[in-house]
Amino acid sequence: MSSTTDISRRGFLKIAGLGGTALYLGVFPSATGAEATIVNAGQAAYQSIELNAWVYIDTAGKVTFVDHRAEMGQGSYHSVSQILAEELEVDLNDVNIIFGQGDKKYGSQVTGGSSTIRMNYKNFLKLTATAREMLIAAAAAQWGVAAAECYAEHGHVIHKKSGKKAHYGELVVAASKLTPPKDVKLKKRSEYRLIGKPLKRLDTPLKTNGTAIFGLDKRVPGMVFAAVERNPRLRGKVKSFDASAALKVPGVQKVFKIKMLVFKTYREGVAVVANSTYAAFQGKKALKVEWDDSGFEHINTADIYARQLENVKTKEGLFLKKQGDPDAALAKSAQKLDLIYQTPYQSHSPIEPLNCVAHYQGDKVEVWGPIQAPDWIQDALSEEMGLKRENVIVNMTFLGGGFGRKAFMDYPHEAAVISKEINAPVQVVWTREDEMTQGPYRPGITYRCEASINNGDIDALKFRMSGQNNDHWRDPKNKQQANRSTSEGFLQPYYDSIKNISFAEVIFETPIPSMWWRSVYASTNGFAYESFLDEVAHAAGKDPMDLRRQYLTDERSQKLLDKMEEISGWKNRKKNEGFGVAITECFASTVGQIVKVSRKAGGKVKIDKVWAVMDCGWYVNPDIVQAQVEGAIVMGLGAATMHEITFTDGLVDQKNYHSYQMPRIYDIPPIEVHIMENAEDAGGVGEPGLPSFAPALTNAIFDLTGTRIRKLPFKMDEV
Amino acid sequence: MKNTHTKITSGVIVMALLLVSLVAFSFKKDGANVSDYMAVPDKKKDSIASVKAFQKVYSVLMSPRCMNCHPKGDVPLQGEDSHLHQMMPQRGKDGKGLYAMKCTNCHQPENTPGLHMPPGHKDWHLPPADMKMVFEGKTAHELAKQLVDPKQNGGKDLKKLVEHADDGLVKTGWNPGEGLKKPPLTHAEFKKSWIEWIEKGAYAPAP
Amino acid sequence: MIKLTINGKEHTLDADPEMPLLWAIRDLAGLTGTKFGCGVAQCGACMVHLDGDAVRSCVTKIKRAVGKQVITIEGLSDNNNHPVQQAWAEIDVPQCGYCHSGQIMAAAVLLRDNPNPTDADIDIAMAGNICRCGTYPRIRKAIHTAAELQQKSLK
């Protein structure tokens, strides 16, 4: 494979040069993933022909694929390509891959909700199959044979009888004049030569020798560096600053006040521009800034949880879902459970700190960086800076992790503002301390879970949560509605088998910026809901797995349970041997996990093994699916047992990895991942492996020790 | 409460006497620049004063700045609460760490500025695996005995032991990284007590 | 002016001797494979070899590197073919990939000092490198693979 890692689409087109007629299969998938409309736009474009928004072929036959979504570890760079190559009949090793700039033609580019594959794969298959059929038709016409006698293979069209062969490059111009066929035949899964195979990731070689270009590695001519001292409280202002010491730092060029967009509010800070990252950091340290922190609450962690607890104890909240009448059932219940669970605030802490390169040039601005949502950056910067949307040019690099944080617009906006001020391209680099102390964070939440049990059966489930709603940052109108993610993580089939269920949110707000974090609310809901079901099972005198069997009655769930039991030896376990189970669903995939714990010599609890079963329906690359579940479990382990963000007087207590400790290699138990094979539609892969880990672990600890953990994080050493 | 100042185990006395005479012998031999450490004639031996001095020495040696690099296991300790060092760096044979986790991969020749940054010294290391010189968990009695035992103190005779008060890495305890506390005595006070303890007979407090 | 030898090539840099080696390598020598992760010697993303030791370049000042050999990820092998790099590709270790320059530099030191590491040795050697994507199970597997590859290449 010869791969281009840092050529923007713009650069690519420039290389391709102007001239020639082009085939353009326009496709405008909606954000919901509705089926694409395929038209031959017939535009004169470039010698390198845009077969569709994702595929270019030049007249020499060179194929270029576009990954229009962020590559942040989850595998879009490879997986998008593995799908595109399938029906197009090209070899992955012959393909160049580039990242798509922000452009409406791709539909949504927001790389979140584990949506890249599940929202696009049908379009990709149809588009590439259509392009292939047009190339075959062009060849057949040239050769004067029936298209049905021809087939495509390895980037060529071949006539079966005569053995005539033409590479795609020879055919693209002729193909562009054809009308795209309707209803092309797509392969069955059993016919795939690429999809479903554990192919080696195309980005791996770039990531083993330092050649992959991440945001921090982006360089443009004339670029300077900047660091920003931001008010550590989001809503605070800059009262005054003294730049005299900073300006004496060798290499520091300019110091000035800035403000950057954070959803609908602004963060204020002081920017230090210098000739190296080091000089900018030194200048930042030398700054003296006086903050104005008046007019908003400086909150403490203890107050957050006290208020949330008060909320769920005294208020019904806004109902997101309600079926039957849980209150009536609870009122006359023979056996009731009423329990509180709490989860912490968490930092994303992607290993690549936030950074962005921006170049403001009067009527346009170009940015390069680790960006999860180029389209949102276009929206925000055009609106905020008074530019035409198409004049906000957004280039994605590889992302050194994202987990939701890099879908924010604050850091690109900040870079653009600084570039405008100095009239030069600039790279703004956040320190780890900046990233960890500024947020936004996954919100910490308090849950009240109630159940009515009659004769060992679940009669009613009533769930209430109180925690910050991320949607409130985007639009104040959302404050009139229950958090749409209140039930995220909870399995759909329960609604069919349990008569009375309700989910409600009691609104809770703080000045702390909050935001989605890998698996979003499922990451915290899952702990409460699946711990609670385990407690219900014990109260009802049932095996926790049998309880799931009783209420997850659909065939798909039953098969998942079969698999979980089979691989973990669940049925052969001894009483209180230390097995725990949890199952959660989010982004259209379900993941069941079993954790086995035991006591070390000395009595402390350790994790012996984690088994995970992923049901994501249609999938591309089993090795990437497994890797994502492994990684999600490791991230879940950290969030459950190692780190949390806490606040004192409105400031974050954790500054860097010494106080926000990550799992390290010696913390990791053996993890075994299985993928369900079925004919279901594609579900998400990057996030759904996370939520079920924490409850499976704490349920296992209860099984072994009788100690019930209802608040995260906890320390394994202290169980 | 036991009177720890007067109960002295006979074994230690014998050991200490032996060592003092060895020191005296070695001084005769090289005799250079020893005014600070001049061996004290037997008649000035004073078990009470020696033990009293050692109690001060002990308060320093058991402070995090000294004890953290004299752990009972093979992982150094860290911080004022002497928790196991994050990342579990291992002692290694020579006390300098292992593989990609050598002490000096993070600990520079000098302190790195900033809170929670690695403190530094050019020879940053733990005692080697064959001479662990454990402080952690030792009573004053155990530590005193250990310190004067050449088999446990790195082969130091009393002269070398006296000199050790001015060892570069020992003195690093009084140049801690930002935000870290110094030992409870100044280095001068420590050195005075250290020498006094040795000169007055290197007696160990009662067990 | 400070002279540094990076990947066998001499660089003359106009730099403050107190500048961390990390920024000299990235911003002045223009080698961006070495990463900034935490700046406080916690994560290992910035590891380079300094006369064979896997130092963290974010806290190693350039004055310490004068007269020594600095090897970065770009200089570990000629063709992405150090046994550790080959094993990383074989096992498909990286996800986002950002920490892996450091992970690979750490693993290379382990395999040099201990050609046949156990799981316990791997835990010791790799303890200083954080992977937020959680690729640890594959790092472990790949180091065992790299050990095999290294032994084969020696035969």
Automatic annotation (TrEMBL), chain A:
The organism's place on the tree of life at top rank: Bacteria
A family per Pfam: MoCoBD_1
Native organism: Flavobacterium akiainvivens
Protein name: Xanthine dehydrogenase
Domain named Aldehyde oxidase/xanthine dehydrogenase a/b hammerhead: residues: 209-295
One term of GO molecular function: oxidoreductase activity
From TrEMBL, chain B:
Top-rank taxon: Bacteria
Classification via SUPFAM superfamilies: Multiheme cytochromes
Protein known as: Cytochrome c domain-containing protein
TrEMBL record, chain C:
Entries under CDD domains matching the protein: fer2
Top-level taxonomic group: Bacteria
GO molecular function list: 2 iron, 2 sulfur cluster binding; metal ion binding; oxidoreductase activity
Pfam families assigned to the protein according to its UniProt record, in alphabetical order: Fer2, Fer2_2
Record keywords: 2Fe-2S, Iron, Iron-sulfur, Metal-binding, Oxidoreductase
Domain 2Fe-2S ferredoxin-type: 1-76
Residues annotated as signal peptide: none
Protein's name according to its UniProt entry: (2Fe-2S)-binding protein
Organism of origin: Flavobacterium akiainvivens
Phylogenetic lineage: Bacteria, Pseudomonadati, Bacteroidota, Flavobacteriia, Flavobacteriales
